[in-house]
Amino acid sequence: MNDTHLRTVPPDSRELVASIYEAVRGVAAAFPRSLFLQRAREGGHARELWDALVAADLLAIGVPEFLGGAGGGLTGTTAVMEALARAGVPPLQYSLTTFSREAILRHGSEQQIKDHVIATMTGKRKICLGVTEPEAGTNSFASRTTARRTADGGYRISGQKVFISGADESDHILLLARTAPQGEEVGRRKGFGLFIVDMSLPGVELRRLDIEWYAPENQYEVFFDDVEVPAEALVGQEGAGFDHLLSCLNQERVTVAAWALGLGHYALQKAVDYAKVRAPFGKPIGAHQAVQHPLALATAEMEAARQVMYSAAAGYDSGHDAGDQANMAKLLGSRAALAAVEAAIQAHGGSAFVYETDVVTLWPMVRVLQIAPLNNESILNYIGERVLGLPRS
């Protein structure tokens, strides 16, 4: 299987992407897939992976050079995530932190950028994202977590978030909370605040969810019981928090596509290598169209999704909204990656379900990406309404 990491990448970004892939090879050598799975089985964390990212200066990718970062924009961040996933070691914490700091870069104060963006480059700041709630689900307008003004100008936060990945490793959470009084109408540009909240504050409680997805990162319910935060915790304008969050979701969509496609590539490579040597009837099974065609189709579909993904990243970096392509990239990337993993499982047969083969271990994570961080049905709604102009679902 040919190395395709520079295919579909815009020509002016190929040198950047090539250097990122070279750096990731060193990271993967320090923290290989075997250690990734070991940490997952032990319920531990991938601290060595995070340290390797810092040492390789990969956390500086995406932060503007005038702030001391390495630049590269979303294209660079996408390449980092894709390269790590291709190596079988995709760190969800990387995606969460880079996405969250983008909101602060766009809407935060100079002090917030210093405290919560520049600090991420050295690995001293890890940020998780707090949006989803048990009752609201995809409908974030129905969120019940509230942030009420206090006499000293700060806020008191109460409520609950769920499926918060990496909450135990993160020192801060980028939190969406309702600032409008109960019963008052809310919308994209009114009624919400976006806060950067210290996870060590009194009143913050974590409860781990029992989810098995073969990754050294866990998911939590996070409870906020009258958590007092200073006025400086508010990112941007009060009331405009939902809008501030939405303005950065395109980056999330693209990095999730990179995550999915990287794992799909990893699965396909394993399947191709196996299909070349597995020969129960004297001829390698890869010579049979029933094995070969699903792998070939998944390859073509992933290549197409990758084209959309890097095009979306380039558009975003050029200052365009890129929402249409970013959503399409997440949809196509997650679906193509799932097809690749399914084809790899089928090619391996029963051995795919043996843990040491490391094939079925890929399925839960890629399957989750059909649902999170936004389910593909909602993306189809977006395309139907925003791209095709059809009536709102």
TrEMBL record:
Could you list this entry's UniProt keywords, alphabetically sorted: FAD, Flavoprotein, Oxidoreductase
Domain called Acyl-CoA oxidase/dehydrogenase middle: residue spans:
128-227
Record has Iron as a keyword: no
Into which family does the record put it? Belongs to the acyl-CoA dehydrogenase family.
Q: Name one GO molecular function term.
A: acyl-CoA dehydrogenase activity
Q: Where is the Acyl-CoA dehydrogenase/oxidase C-terminal domain?
A: 239-388
Q: What is the scientific name of the source organism?
A: Lentzea albidocapillata
By its UniProt entry, which Pfam families does this protein fall under? Acyl-CoA_dh_1, Acyl-CoA_dh_M, Acyl-CoA_dh_N
The alphabetized list of GO BP terms reads: fatty acid beta-oxidation using acyl-CoA dehydrogenase
Q: Please report the name of this protein according to its UniProt entry.
A: Acyl-CoA dehydrogenase
Q: Which InterPro entries match?
A: Acyl-CoA_dehydrogenase, Acyl-CoA_Oxase/DH_mid-dom, Acyl-CoA_Oxase/DH_mid-dom_sf, AcylCo_DH-like_C, AcylCo_DH/oxidase_C, AcylCoA_DH/ox_N, AcylCoA_DH/ox_N_sf, AcylCoA_DH/oxidase_NM_dom_sf
Tell me where in this chain the Acyl-CoA dehydrogenase/oxidase N-terminal domain is found. Answer: 20-121
Q: Which cofactors are required for activity?
A: FAD
The Gene Ontology CC terms held by the record are: cytoplasm
